[in-house]
Amino acid sequence: MSKILETAPWLTAATRAEQRAAPIPPARRSLRSGSRVLSEEGYELWAPAYDRDPNHLLALEERTLKPLLPDLAGQQVLDLGCGTGRWLELLLDLAARRPVGVDRSPAMLSVAATKARLCGRLVEAVDILSIGLRVM
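Structure (tokenized):
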């Protein structure tokens, strides 16, 4: 949790220090054979191609959501579930001030970390459901 507060000091933890989130266990491998995988494993497999390969769903997402964003110029933004940082880059383009990304997938964050514009804007893999945050 301190890593989040270091990267995004404008946030405060809603939980006390002794209630910090437990470390994330390594991704479990699917017990099923065939094409089904656990979500953690899926993101690990998808991460290298997520931004690289054309994806109609991601294109639809951007076409639909981008016009709905408010004016973010000068705003501090926390992107929960930032994945490879696609939206963080967009937030920078929209002049957001100090956008920060958090994600549970180390594989997705490792792709995001290769993007020079995102240097210092990512928080190591944490389970976003276990973070109690409130905006001040």
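The beta strands are 11-13, 76-80, 97-102, 122-123, 133-135. The radius of gyration is 16 Å.
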